[in-house]
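Supplementary Note 2. Why include the ligand at all?

Several targets in our set were suspected to adopt different conformations when bound, so apo predictions alone were not considered sufficient. For every target with a known small-molecule partner we therefore ran a joint prediction. The input for adenosine monophosphate is given below.
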Amino acid sequence: VPAATQRLAVLRTVPDIRAAVAAPRAAGGRIGFVPTMGGLHAGHASLMCRARAECDFVVVSIFVNPAQFGPREDYTKYPRDLDADSALCKRECADVVFAPEVEAIYPPGDKTRVEVAGLTDGMCGAFRPGHFRGVTTVCARLFNIVLPDAAYFGEKDYQQLKVVERMVADLQMPLAIIPCPTVRDDDGLALSSRNAYLSPSDRQAALTLWRALQTAQAAVTRGARDAAAILKVVHGTFTAEPAARLQYAELRNPETLQSVERIDGPTLLALAAFVGEVRLIDNLVLQPDA
Ligand code: AMP
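The joint prediction is reproduced in token form.
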């Protein structure tokens, strides 16, 4: 099979992507959008698959957004393989890939940032200053360029999902944000582009996140309701695996992200942990009635 049929056309400029989306929109088609940073895996594919099922034209963006990385984070070494990524987009039957240069999204002299207050304070926001401001800024720009009817986001990045939902509601942007469940490997590890950094032994240690989430659900199923008691179970799981260093574990209302002291309904348990230099996040909505 010629290589050209295994990959999708990759558009690099704002005028090109606008032109590509104009015709299906003018024909009354529903435009679906899957924003990503590349390093694509089955989690991203699940978003594309959902978009494909619900929309007439599917745009995938691949843009490693410098604005959402801190100075000591992995921006320069983040996985970049446009050929492999565009091949995955083709397999998932996306219509077009938008992979802009940094200057196309942040033209020289730009001064505008978008920031959601409150929801960005705790969890990842507490440890990654400016991260969500970078996320909302790039999403606002990409939404304005692509003008989708629906954009697909993974629950894997739960706080991001809620922050983007808030931005879209507050700015009255005319699109639906569609949440999609976290895709995991068979052993439970949440798929992440950053898993590519893990050695085989690191990967074993990385399973601690999933183990902690499940152990917490088991405690809730046995009747635990006190947040401190549940978090103690989480900390204990990490103590047993010193190669995984917990950064935070928080129990929050899954809609408002308010801190929770006692579980009396579905409650978000969100975790971040380091395995070596690699920072991983995961979460589960704990179900008291499970
Ligand atoms: P990223 O490329 O990491 O910025 O992620 C792009 C989108 O894919 C975001 O909406 C993520 O939440 C989503 N995503 C990443 N990993 C997963 C996963 N394991 N399952 C479902 N969605 C995911």
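The mean pLDDT is 96. The pocket of adenosine monophosphate is lined by residues 36-37, 43-44, 46-47, 153-154, 156-157, 180, 182-183, 190-193 (CB under 6 Å). Comparable summaries for the other entries are listed in the accompanying table.
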